[in-house]
Amino acid sequence: MGRMTATTPRRVLLAAPRGYCAGVDRAVIAVEKALEQYGSPVYVRHEIVHNKYVVQTLEKKGAIFVEGTAEVPEGSIVMFSAHGVAPTVHEEAAGRKLATIDATCPLVTKVHKEAVRFAQDDFDILLIGHEGHEEVIGTSGEAPEHITLVDGPEDVAGVEVRDPSKVVWLSQTTLSVDETMETVGALKEKFPLLISPPSDDICYATQNRQIAVKQMGADADLVIVVGSKNSSNSVRLVEVALGAGANDAHLVDFADEIDEAWLEGVSTVGVTSGASVPEVLVDGVLAWLSERGFEDVEIVKAAEESITFSLPKELRRDLRAEAAALLEK
Length: 329
Description:
Elements: E1 11-16, H1 22-38, E2 42-45, H2 52-61, E3 63-66, E4 77-80, H3 87-95, E5 99-102, H4 106-120, E6 124-128, H5 134-140, E7 147-150, E8 167-171, H6 177-190, H7 204-217, E9 222-226, H8 232-243, E10 248-252, E11 268-273, H9 279-291, E12 296-301, H10 319-328
Helix pairs in contact: 4-5, 7-8
């Protein structure tokens, strides 16, 4: 990159699509609706979506976030997060007489159903994903004795199966598309009869946000991804930006986390946000950049998104009455 001069134009490339996906939108609205309908407290098992700001905002409205169902008082309402839960968690909730609202993203539920079906057919299932991520824990819990986690291409060498002719791969929905396909390639070399899932597990929103960042990253000196550190899809966007040729890329929750030093010698800044990030946080970053001379904003559009999901069916019932009835049993 040549030396900056006073006349070098400063611009922002803003990725589209970015921010909320349909599953996150549905989950966040579900918490708000539950609080409106049933009043506080509504307990939420795990962060409803992986975003600091969203969790703080919902806490102010009366949601109580817990790590496990054991923390929820008997006879209360508990909501399961967008990442999904293992069947044992449903059993625990029933044992504690909790009324449940399941805000699992339908695209995660699809992977759960695939896991159940392939396990019933006695396949070994190779689940590509990140160890410890809630979604992986939930999916693995559907068929623990059939599922082996494969956390990236370097894990492939150690994978063992019972019958190489009955092996299928599934994946976490929020991974890097390229890295996942690299892992699949390595698995296919080891297990030539490996079956692929009936439809791609990596969700439309993850893919679209990565495609937009690839288009943008090649032209950007710096890419700022708005998102939380525990958000898998947001962390992947930083990796994809660097892979696409961006000189530098950083993940921030809020504009005040941006370091002015990152702007040194920079004329083009790419901006995007993860699938659990409200647009108000992106607006904050754009305002911060604008104050520093980056006023010219160009949209880099990779796809149209029109997908929406209906709200969890439990919101149409009187859950407080159901919870009270459970306690009396």
